[in-house]
TrEMBL record:
Its main location: cytoplasm. PANTHER family: METHYLTETRAHYDROFOLATE:HOMOCYSTEINE METHYLTRANSFERASE RELATED, UROPORPHYRINOGEN DECARBOXYLASE. One of its GO terms (molecular function) is uroporphyrinogen decarboxylase activity. Catalyzes the decarboxylation of four acetate groups of uroporphyrinogen-III to yield coproporphyrinogen-III. This is Uroporphyrinogen decarboxylase. The lineage of its organism: Bacteria, Pseudomonadati, Pseudomonadota, Alphaproteobacteria, Rhodobacterales. It comes from Amaricoccus solimangrovi.
Length: 343
């Protein structure tokens, strides 16, 4: 395989490497001064997402600075709802605001899954440019939000601490909720396949709020949609690894792995690596350093980084954080983390 020498691809294919490949969730972001400068040139965050030149530039910035083993496409999980017809804007200092979907009429106003590509064409162009510009050793990761997490924003119209609006819709109007999950699932498959066609070598499914699903609903709204997405990608794009990230799934990480057949599991900060190795044998594990250590730094960062590498050393591992790097992180601490991993 042409990509066979990239460390990330080797780890995802199940190889245990002496030094794990490394990348970070949110590696292109506000903790980098060069990101803030490009972001200021773009205007809004969404303008940046839809400008292939600038989105390519910010994706490459952390690769140039740190030499990560993978780049992740610069975009957002909420571009899919927007492409389905939701109004979307990001309020500075607050977060996303969307038009809400709480009933059959709202659902009827959304476009079909196949209609998303017109809006998302600039994202595919960014993927093409990245594939042409990335160093030969750097893998390109595409991504989408998982249906449940995307639905939580579409139902509430914003981020919520407990995803109560989406949970409420499950209990009060399950047919509408199921239809929404179905629409997002179809759009996600179409979106990821276009990213793969454009040059994404790996895709990651972000289910950031999987931990908010009641246990009885985890299978229906986290595992099953992910299983459908994985199966559709495997059928149309065999050989492209899929990383699943059911954040906060706890003990459900096991049933998620079994139900979906993902190539790798991204573990959040709460998961004990030793438990994960025992409970999830044979699968590539990604994670899971506490991102706060990149704010606090010092010898605690060195110790935790080395402990993380050692704890996962018995099998295929992709070093990452347990969640995204935060805007108050110090880039010098990222260098320090990389020295502790790579020596
Ligand atoms: C829930 C979610 C979103 N977006 C995403 C998730 C799932 C992962 C997670 O749990 O973090 C995923 C995401 N968002 C972004 C990426 C790009 C790739 C990467 O570097 O990881 C990815 C993979 C850029 C971004 N997405 C966002 C930024 C900050 C925008 C800015 O420059 O102001 C970036 C770099 C904005 C965003 N986007 C979203 C929110 C709630 C916010 C606002 C909160 C915040 O400001 O941090 C939705």
């Amino acid at each position: 395989m042409r990509t066979g020498t990239k460390l990330l691809m080797r780890a995802l294919a199940g190889e245990t490497l002496a030094v794990p490949p490394v990348w970070m969730m949110r590696q292109a972001g506000r903790y980098l001064p060069e990101y803030r400068a490009t972001r200021a040139r773009a205007g809004s965050f969404l303008d940046l997402c839809y400008d292939p030149d600038l989105a390519t530039e910010v994706t490459l910035q952390p690769i140039r600075r740190f030499g990560f083993d993978a780049a992740i496409l610069f975009a957002d999980i909420l571009l899919v709802p927007q492409a389905l017809g939701a109004d979307l804007r990001f309020v500075e200092g607050e977060g996303p605001r969307l038009s809400t979907v709480t009933g059959a009429e709202d659902l009827a106003r959304l476009g079909p899954a196949e209609a998303i590509h017109e809006t998302l064409a600039p994202v595919y162009e960014t993927v093409r440019r990245l594939r042409a510009e990335l160093p030969a050793e750097t893998a390109l990761i595409g991504f989408a939000g998982a249906p449940w997490t995307v639905a939580t924003y579409m139902v509430a119209g914003r981020g919520t601490p407990d995803q109560a609006p989406a949970r409420r819709l499950i209990y009060t109007d399950r047919p509408v909720f199921d239809a929404l999950i179905e629409r997002i699932t179809e759009a996600t498959i179409a979106y990821l396949l276009r990213q793969i066609e454009a040059g994404a070598e790996v895709v990651k499914l972000f289910d950031s709020w999987a931990g908010a699903l009641p246990g009885a609903e985890f299978d229906a709204y986290c595992a099953r949609p992910a299983a459908r997405i994985v199966a559709a990608l495997r059928a149309a794009a065999p050989g492209v690894p899929v990383i699943g990230f059911p954040r906060g799934a706890g003990g459900n990480y096991q049933s998620f792995a079994a139900a979906t057949g993902v190539s790798a599991l991204a573990l959040d900060t709460s998961v004990d690596p030793a438990w994960a190795r025992r409970a999830l044998p044979g699968i590539c594990l990604q994670g899971n350093l506490d991102p706060l250590l990149l704010v606090t730094g010092g010898s605690a960062l060195d110790a935790a980084t080395r402990a993380c590498v050692a704890a996962f050393a018995g099998g295929p591992h992709v070093f990452n954080l347990g969640h995204g790097i935060t805007p108050d992180a110090d880039p010098a601490n990222v260098e320090r983390m990389l020295r502790a991993i790579r020596g």
